[in-house]
Amino acid sequence: MLNADQLYQFNTFGFVVMKNVFSQEELKVIQKEFDTKAAEASNYEKFTGLKTQNFNMMGSTTPFYASLLEDHRFLDAAKQMYGEVLVHGADANRYVGNTYWHYDAGSYEGYGVKFAIYLQPVDANTGALRVIPGSHKRPWFDDLDKKPPLRYAWVRLNNDQAEDTKVIESIPGFVCKSTPGDVVAFDMRIYHASVGGSSDRHHCTLVYRNYPKTPQEVAATISEAKEFMTERDNSNTPWNPKKRVPDEWLDNPSNNSTRQFWIDEWMKFSNMTDGKNGYKTVAIDGKIEVVEA
Fold first, then answer.
1. Burial status of residue 257 (CB atoms within 10 A of its CB: 0-12, 13-18, 19 or more)
2. Is the N or C terminus of the chain more exposed, i.e. has fewer CB atoms within 10 Å?
3. pTM score, two decimals?
4. Is 58 in contact with 90 (CB distance < 8 Å)?
5. Structure confidence by residue, pLDDT tens digits, 229-278
6. 74, 106, 68: which is closest to 90 by C-alpha?
7. In sequence order, what DSSP letters do the residues of 36-68 get, joined into one string?
8. How many Cα neighbours within 13 Å face the side chain of 129?
9. How many CB atoms lie within 10 A of CB 214?
10. Phi and psi, residue 99, nearest 5°
């Protein structure tokens, strides 16, 4: 749960640093499960410190981390932010180098919260999340996309330049320093980046989407649900499931009612027809936009 000041900061600026969320015992379990998935990935592709690796943390080999999606510390906080939510995933990363300015929401209407968990201390020069406060709100969200280095169409064509430290630091932002045990929560629409970090930065996430409340948000959710429930080509990351979530999570062996609600809702939205409610999603300059059908 967030206190009143934390909730105000999140709603106003689009992020909040939650201090000392995890105990040392919990951190040891998370690190152990992280290492388990990292070893699975390395069996397919040896980690060299030159390329970021991502792995899903919702399967049977990461039971504690998967359970965090139903943990009230995160689920209740997400509901404070948006009301009802849909789970979107739990992942981990072995990050390498800088991360250019971007946002995570597929479309402005497809928003939610990402809880970022760093398993090593991070600051301005060692890979801490840096954000542009308030950039999750329109019209500023749209205005920031008008010129480099924030314009997404430019980033797509100029990845190397966009990841340059001087380019990233040319944009003023707030650095979310973090130590193990802290959690950085941010709206998926906020512009964010990072500078520095080791060649093996351990980072985990828990992600929830806003439950749609408008026709435009329903259209964004339908698009996301079809991807959520459909098998995809995982040849680049064969250690990850073909769906957004592994089958054992979808099987819900413990009959968790919260998880079953999420599964049923994703299935419902995935079976809806694009554009039937008057709106649909289209790709414009590489970005997903919601438009009239």
1. exposed
2. N
3. 0.97
4. yes
5. 899 899 999 999 999 999 999 999 999 999 999 999 999 999 999 998 99
6. 68
7. HHHHHHHHHS---SSS-EEEE--STT-HHHHHG
8. 31
9. 12
10. -125, 125
**Strands in the chain per DSSP E:** 15-18, 53-56, 85-95, 99-102, 112-118, 129-131, 174-176, 183-187, 192-194, 201-210, 279-284, 287-292
Structure token pair of residue 290: 């919601």
CB neighbour list of residue 77: distance below 8 Å, 6 or more residues apart:
1, 2, 18, 113, 115, 185
Residues in CB range of 220: below 8 A, 6 or more apart:
106, 107, 109, 110, 212, 281, 288, 290
| Domains of the chain: residue spans and CATH | 4-211 (2.60.120.620)
pLDDT at 198: 78
Helix (H, G, I), strand (E, B) or coil at 289: strand
Percentage of the chain exceeding pLDDT 90: 94
Q: What phi, psi does 35 have (nearest 5°)?
A: -65, -35
- What pLDDT, in 10s, does the model give residues 236-246? 999 999 999 99
Token code pair at residue 189: 């629409």
Cβ neighbours of 151 (radius 10 Å): 17
- How far CA 238 is from CA of 54, 203, 234, 235, 269, in Å, comes to 11, 20, 5, 5, 27
In angstroms, how far is CA 50 from the centroid of its own chain? 22
